[in-house]
Design a protein that fits this description.
Number of strands: 0
Oligomer: single chain
Largest sheet: none
Length: 168
Amino acid sequence: MSSGYRGVTIAGIAKSVRSARTSLYRRWPSTRHLVAYAVLSTLGGEPAPDLGSLRRDLRGAVDTLRRAFSGPLGRALPGLVADMSHDPALARMIRQKVLAPRRASIRNAFLRGMARGEIRRGTDVEVLIDLLIAPCYFRVLLRQGALSRAFVDSVVERVLRAAGPHEV
C-alpha cells in the first residue's frame, strides 16, 4: 500500500510477491478484501488486552495505531478513507472487519477500568473511544504532526484525566 489504496491491484501485489494472481484471488476475492486484510494485519486484532491497568491497556491500544501509521498504512490511509466515502462495500468491510473489533477491544478496556474504579461509572465510553483514537487519525489524515510515543502518552493521560474517578 505504499502507493496508496488506489494504486493497489491484485496483479501488482502478485508481481511484488512473485505469486500467481489466481492464488491471491483464491484467498481474497477482490482488492477490497485484500486491503481490509492488510489493514487488519497491520493494526492487529486485539489492541487493548488486559494488562492490569486502564492506563497500560490504553497506551497499548493507541501505540498500535502509532506503529501501524508510521509505515505504509499511514501513507495509504488518506486515499483509503477517501475511497471509503465513494465505495460503500469497502467502507462497510473496513468498519466491520477492522474498526468494530478494535472499538470493542478498547470498549472492554474502559469497562474493565470502570469496574476497577479507574474511571467514573456512567462515563460515556463511546465518547472516550473517540477522544482516544481521533487525534491519531487527525494527525495522519491531515499530516498535522508526528505520532510519537510522547504524543500517545499525552492523549492517554488527558483521556484518563477527563474520565477519572473524581470530578475534575
